[in-house]
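Quick check before the chapter quiz. The format below is the same one you will see on the exam, so make sure you can read both the input and the output lines.
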Amino acid sequence: MGVVALVPAAGRGERLGYGMPKALVPVDGVPLLVRAVRGLLEAGVRHVVIAAPPSDVDTVNTVTAPLAQAGGAVHVLPGGAERSDSVRLALEHAVRKIPGTTIVLVHDAARAFTPPEVVRAVIDAVAAGHPAVIPVLPVTDTVKRVDPGGVVIDTPDRASLRVVQTPQGFDAAVLLRAHGSGLHATDDAGLVERMGVPVVTVPGHQDAMKITTKFDLAVAEALLVGSAARGAQ
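Here is the expected output.
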């Protein structure tokens, strides 16, 4: 299988307050981006294309170089102004420069602790013939729909709701067509969905949380400590 993972990592991450791109913020001394790419490589992905902040391409090349030396091919290029721009640039690089690309994953660097088994489940589902696959978790909180004034409209049945994680997996031709469609959505699966392409789900994992705030960073640090303690037992 020609599997390539795209990592749009050009965001500035102001909410973390580190004064650096979010992807380069360290957790226990290791940048989120490095942890995310390492997880992809451990899952068997051989090519990872990173869309980095244009001013930090050299830095991203430096921090990811050891990963490439460990057996993976890491491609770094300047990202775009918006996440969708970065995905499109990375996707175009993959289909032009990496021969045999048939399956494309889109993964958030902020989901740095996604277990390799989730990555493999997404790949396997696309390889089995599904054009679009996303990992999900059940919604455990009650969700309300509200109007612009904050008044509750209704309460959706949470049994049919899911929280979406990454990596999202696609047939490469389908994702390329979606990004050339002129449609807009908050994620790549939504973009493909708007084209009428069915999107199927596989189980996600609680460790694949998205790190957005300082609180999330603290939770990630605690996750690492707990994992290390379990490994020492």
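If your answer matched, good. The chain has a mean pLDDT of 92.
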